[in-house]
Amino acid sequence: MLRFRHLSITLSMLLFYVLCVNAQQRDSKRFAAIENEKVAYITKELNLSQAEAQRFFPVYNQYNKEMWALKSEKTGSSADAPRGASSFNGSGRRDVLSYDAKELEVKKEYRKKFAEVIGNSRASQFFEIEQNFRELLYKELQRRNK
User: Where does the signal peptide begin and end (predicted)?
Assistant: First the structure.
């Protein structure tokens, strides 16, 4: 009887693991599809030539990686604070303003890098286009939930 119990617990844990991995793969496919749509949207809205896109998107990928790291730190997904900023103020509460300030610094830094590739006007326009994409994504999510 003890053997059967041990076997059933092991099988249950294995099934749980398989289901979790499968769910993560589905989520990563959805995320990849959204990222592909975002790249296409940015390319279209910034009117990037193929040569510009080849130079722009490696810089964009670095920017995106830094922004994701900051957002996960801000929401508490990571224990590390942004470079040069403390994640907690003296009262033990997370200092959201320091994350917002760091986010602004990163955007200013990458605006310069984007300008080297696509020019000042389109580099400035990028952040508006990125926000517009987020709004479109949010509206689509709301539409699907109705």
Answer: 1-23
What letter would DSSP give residue 48?
-
CA pseudo-torsion sign 108, 109, 112, 116: negative
- Tell me, what amino acid is at 18? V
Map tokens 């059967």 to a residue: 4
- Cα distances (Å, whole numbers) of residue 121 to 13, 45, 60, 115, 126: 55, 13, 16, 8, 9
Q: Give me the residue spans of the domains in the chain.
A: 31-145
The pTM for the full model equals 0.68
Tokens 């900023």 belong to residue = 85
pLDDT digits (tens, 9 = 90+) for 20-46: 555 556 678 888 999 999 999 999 999
Give phi and psi for 88, each to the nearest 5. Answer: -125, 140
